[in-house]
Design brief:
Blueprint: H1 4-60, H2 67-78, E1 83-85, E2 88-90, H3 95-111, H4 122-146, E3 153-154, H5 158-180, H6 182-186, H7 193-223, H8 225-233, H9 238-264, E4 268-270, E5 273-275, E6 280-281, H10 308-320, H11 326-351, E7 353-354, E8 360-363, H12 365-389, H13 391-407, H14 415-418, H15 438-443, H16 454-462, H17 467-477, E9 480-482, E10 485-487, H18 507-517
Antiparallel strand pairs: 1-2, 1-3, 4-5, 4-8, 5-6, 7-8, 9-10
């Protein structure tokens, strides 16, 4: 029979083995999850691109020699890397595929950064979300460089390709992780409620501005549907019609971003044309059907009505940023304006670029950022001043100051009750039977010394009974007689009354009854 020491040692060895197996299982699962985060989105994207390129080559009746080069070039184009074909550089690339890939990468990073994963492992998730796309970009650069002899495609600058890929996937992964672990970030002391409110309202302002811009683009396309139809008809056959339509859908986010920049007051130049809310300068533009929404002439002073959109959005943001504390109000407005302006600058920068023979196409970035910040900041500060001058706000601020005064160490604090007297209760250890025990009854007697009250004397005089009866009663009940009042010596009150005038009571009943009579 093994000794207790041997049994304990065997039990501990089994526990260590189970723990090691569990740790290996968790490590293997975590490694698999990181591999999925790194390569799921790039591999799926490459498969879709290969299918699209293969379908295009088959419809065109071409061979499959340039399949790899075309797939690599499209991967780089999705990441906004300028593509040079036959000496013509195209830097204005469609935003829709880029947004889809970024959202997918963010969702993958978010799914791998749940609460069960320690914070120290979030760096591994972030690096995995970036490492896979960077590896795919390196392969694409190698394939494009090798296939330059088959297709007239020039290999882009490697630093530019890696930089764009890193920026897109790093931003997507950071946003996904931050959104999944937002409650932990909100709990940090440096992130106050005013800052959280400003970040949320800044994102809402950009979303509202892009939504209004999309509505304007759709309305313009419906108004100029004949021009749009003529541009689609320029495809000559079904393949051309389908290609132009798909290309217009892919470039639709670019047009929406440009419209949003025009609404805040910036200007957009497409080829030789320049557009803003007040004036339009004509010029040659690419024959893309979605560009049929561009106006042919300026709206004049009527174009000022377009400023209603950013003004309304800024007013809503300002009203949601209101706070009794003026500093918190201003802080929320400033953060909302900064978030909205920076987001617009990033979107406008990715929506434009070089467009071959048509020249530079895009949005004036300084005006887009400054005007977006100006709308939210100026309207927000005006609303903050008006709100701070209202009598109701001043009254709320006075109440807030009073509450802060009582929360200070010199004032009355709720901790005065909760902390110092949290244990000030009747506990079972002090009064187990909620009655006076025998020791208390023996000490609390009716005496004729200085501490005896007149009420006790009256009680003793009114209830003096026959000594014999009282003595018999006391003997029967095992109590002690004091001035004709029999104390039973127990905690419980004796309900039965003996014959005669003497009564068996406890101290509290006796005093209460005497007080009632006198």
């Amino acid at each position: 029979m093994p000794s207790p020491t041997a049994e304990n040692l065997a039990s501990r060895l089994r526990q260590v083995r189970r723990l090691s197996r569990a740790q290996r299982s968790m490590s293997d699962g975590s490694a698999r999850e990181l591999v999925v985060v790194a390569f799921a989105v790039p591999v799926i994207t490459m498969v879709i691109l290969a299918a699209v390129v293969l379908a295009v080559l088959l419809f065109a009746g071409s061979g499959l020699e340039g399949l790899g080069t075309a797939v690599g070039t499209m991967w780089l184009a999705i990441h906004q890397v300028p593509v040079t074909i036959s000496g013509v550089t195209i830097g204005v690339l469609p935003l829709l595929p880029t947004l889809v890939v970024a959202v997918a990468a963010g969702r993958m990073a978010s799914s791998a950064s749940g609460p069960e994963r320690p914070t120290s492992e979030l760096v591994a998730v972030f690096c995995s979300a970036i490492g896979g796309p960077l590896l795919m970009t390196a392969l694409s650069l190698a394939v494009v460089m090798d296939g330059a002899s088959v297709l007239p495609v020039q290999s882009p600058v490697a630093l530019t390709a890696f930089g764009y890929t890193f920026g897109i996937h790093a931003a997507a992964a950071a946003c996904g992780i931050a959104w999944r672990r937002r409650h932990e970030f909100y709990g940090r002391p440096a992130i106050t409620p005013a800052i959280r409110r400003g970040v949320r309202l800044g994102a809402v302002a950009v979303a509202a501005l892009l939504t209004c811009a999309a509505i304007v683009v759709v309305v313009r396309l419906l108004i100029r549907w004949r021009v749009t139809g003529e541009l689609i008809a320029g495809g000559n056959d079904f393949d051309g019609f389908l290609g132009l339509t798909v290309l217009s859908v892919l470039y639709l986010p670019n047009v929406v971003v440009g419209t949003a920049a025009v609404l805040v007051g910036s200007d957009v130049h497409v080829g030789g044309a320049s557009i803003d809310l007040l004036d339009v300068h004509g010029g040659p533009v690419p024959p893309l059907p979605v560009l049929g929404a561009l106006p042919e002439a300026g709206a004049g002073t009527i174009g000022l009505l377009g400023f209603v959109v950013p003004a309304s959005i800024a007013l809503v943001v300002a009203l949601r940023c209101r706070d009794a504390d003026p500093l918190a109000n201003v802080r929320s407005v400033a953060v909302a304006g900064a978030v909205a302006a920076s987001t617009m600058v990033v979107l406008c920068a990715t929506a434009g670029g070089e467009l071959g023979e048509f020249g530079d196409t895009g949005i004036t970035l300084p005006t887009a950022g400054v005007f977006t910040l100006g709308w939210i900041a100026v309207v927000g500060l005006v609303v903050a001043l008006i709100h701070g001058a209202l009598p109701s706000t001043r009254a709320a601020r006075r109440d807030l100051d009073i509450e802060e005064y009582y929360d200070d160490e010199d004032g009355y604090d709720d901790d005065y009750l909760t902390d110092e007297y949290q244990d000030w209760e009747y506990e079972d250890s002090d009064y187990e039977d909620s009655e006076y025990d025998e020791s208390d009854d023996e000490d609390w007697e009716y005496e004729s010394d200085e501490g005896t009250s007149d009420l006790a004397d009256d009680v003793a005089d009114d209830h003096v009974a026959d000594d014999d009866d009282a003595g018999d009663d006391a003997a029967d009940y095992g109590g002690v007689e004091h001035s004709g009042v029999v104390y039973d010596g127990y905690d419980d009150v004796v309900d039965d009354r003996p014959a005669g005038d003497a009564r068996v009571v406890d101290d509290r009943d006796e005093v209460g009854s005497s007080a009632d009579r006198h």
